[in-house]
Amino acid sequence: MLRRSLPITFALLLVAGCSSGGLGGTVVSGTGPDDLLKLRTGPGLGYSVILGLPDGTSLSRRDCVTEVGQLWCRVSLADAPGITGYVAADYLSDR
Fold first, then answer.
1. Nearest to 6 by CA among 52, 41, 51
2. What's the CA gap between 31 and 12, in Å, rounded?
3. Closest Cα partner for 73 from 51, 90, 57, 58?
4. pLDDT digits (tens, 9 = 90+) for 15-28
5. What is the CATH number of the domain that holds 71?
6. Which domain holds residue 30?
7. Distances from the Cα of 7 to the Cαs of 12, 57, 59, 69, in angstroms?
C-alpha cells in the first residue's frame, strides 16, 4: 500500500469553521448505492483508508481543514466513537 507523507510546508492545512452539532448530527450522503466514503487516517487522498462508510452512516463531526483545495473533516462513528478519521466534507450532510 502506498503511504505518502507530505511535508508541512507542502501540505497547506487551514482550519475551517466546520463543526457540527452533537453526536450523530452528521450523516454520510451522496456516495451512491454501490460506493463507500473512505474514512482515512489523515486529511487527503495520500493517507491510508481505515474503512468504507455507506450512505446514512451517522457521524460526529469534529473540526475541518482544507488541504490542497479540498475540505476534509475529522469525524468519529456515532456508534463507535473510538473509531476516528478524516472524510471529504462534500459527502457529509447535517441531519
1. 41
2. 26
3. 90
4. 223 333 444 489 99
5. 2.30.30.40
6. 23-94
7. 9, 32, 29, 16
81 in a structural domain: yes
Q: Which three cell numbers stand for residue 38?
A: 473512505
Report the predicted TM-score, pTM, of the whole model to 2 decimal places.
Answer: 0.74
Residue 45 covered by a domain? yes
pLDDT for 5-59, tens place per residue? 333 222 222 222 333 344 448 999 999 889 999 999 999 999 999 999 999 999 9
Is 80 a member of any domain?
yes
Mapped onto helix, strand or coil, the DSSP state of residue 89 is helix
Q: Give the number of domains in the chain.
A: 1
Q: Per the domain annotation, does 86 fall within a domain?
A: yes
In angstroms, rounded to a whole number, what is the distance separating the alpha carbons of residues 11 and 62?
20
